[in-house]
Design a protein that fits this description.
about 300 residues, mainly alpha, 2 domains, extended
Length: about 300
């Protein structure tokens, strides 16, 4: 673990504070909810095996789609064990995002997005724990999925001038959680700005050795790069696109215009006409590939000069 990863530890207190309050609101967790909570820790596989990191995202993708399509748009209860699994995952969702950020050391953009989402997920867990309804993991899952909708509704009321209730993230304001979020923000910045001493510096200007740049390309605009900036005249005039490229663009435009006209004046035949155009284009592509394919025969060897006597 390098210095950039040590900054992620500053997020743990804020996330743990929210998760503990969520567990207290749900009452004793059963075994099914415990399995759902453990599935939120699946991205930790990426810390050990980088080639298996993608497998850790599968539980998060599944529960996110289930929660926010079934219980996020309208408050629908999740049936049976699925509700308990989703509730257990919702309780530990902040740690799911934190572990995903820790498993992405070479992608600062993804890491920054995941760190912000982890803090928002912690605030949502705390809001669902204090607003309710609680009592079971399935109810907590529904309350967690309703937080973004309630927050957007409250903000929309404020923007339109209507009288709306307090937004969920504001209603659960806690001084302890706010201080922990400030600590987490400092750790997130330290994680994003930290430099790994074992890797070569990137974008630090002319102090780092760079490979020679061929003529005709733009070099760096940093101080040393401006001294060597030189754009060469191309050796030959650029050629236009070949005939097949122009014909493919014209064919695609004609196909789109034909589908639009058929959809406007004769929508009943849209499917059949679209199928016919698609088949015709596929036949044209196959014929073009057959006419322009490279022969598999080996080229003839060059003729040898006649032997001297």
């Amino acid at each position: 673990m390098n210095r950039s990863d040590l900054g992620l530890l500053a997020l743990v207190p804020a996330l743990a504070y929210a998760v503990v309050h969520g567990v207290q609101a749900v009452a004793p967790l059963d075994a099914v909810a415990g399995i759902g909570a453990l599935s939120a820790l699946a991205p930790a596989v990426g810390l050990v095996r980088r080639d298996l990191a993608v497998l850790g995202w599968l539980p998060g993708i599944f529960f996110t789609v289930v929660l926010f399509t079934v219980a996020g748009i309208s408050a629908n209860a999740l049936p049976g064990a699925l509700g308990d699994l989703a509730g257990g995952f919702a309780l530990c969702a902040p740690f799911f995002l934190l572990l995903g950020a820790a498993a992405s050391p070479d992608e600062p953009g993804r890491r920054a997005a995941l760190l912000v989402l982890s803090l928002l997920a912690a605030a949502a867990v705390l809001a669902a724990a204090q607003i309710g309804p609680g009592g079971s993991a399935a109810n907590f899952a529904v309350a967690f999925a309703q937080i973004p909708r309630a927050q957007a509704s409250a903000l929309g009321g404020v923007l339109t001038g209507a009288s709306s209730g307090t937004a969920p993230f504001v209603a659960v304001a806690s001084s302890t959680f706010s201080l922990l979020v400030l600590l987490a923000g400092a750790g997130a910045l330290a994680s994003l700005l930290g430099v790994d001493p074992s890797r070569d510096p990137e974008g630090l200007g002319f102090d780092a050795p760079t490979a020679p740049v061929p003529e005709g390309t733009y070099r760096s605009l940093l101080p040393d790069g401006r001294l060597r900036l030189n754009e060469a005249t191309p050796a030959a005039r650029p050629v236009g696109p070949d005939t097949t490229s122009v014909l493919s663009v014209l064919g695609a435009a004609a196909a789109g215009l034909t589908s639009l006209l058929v959809a406007t004046y004769d929508p009943d035949d849209l499917i059949s006409v679209t199928a016919g155009i698609t088949i015709a284009l596929l036949v044209g592509v196959l014929l073009t590939m057959w006419r322009t394919r490279v022969p598999l025969t080996a080229p003839a060897p060059p003729a040898l000069p006649p032997a001297r006597p």
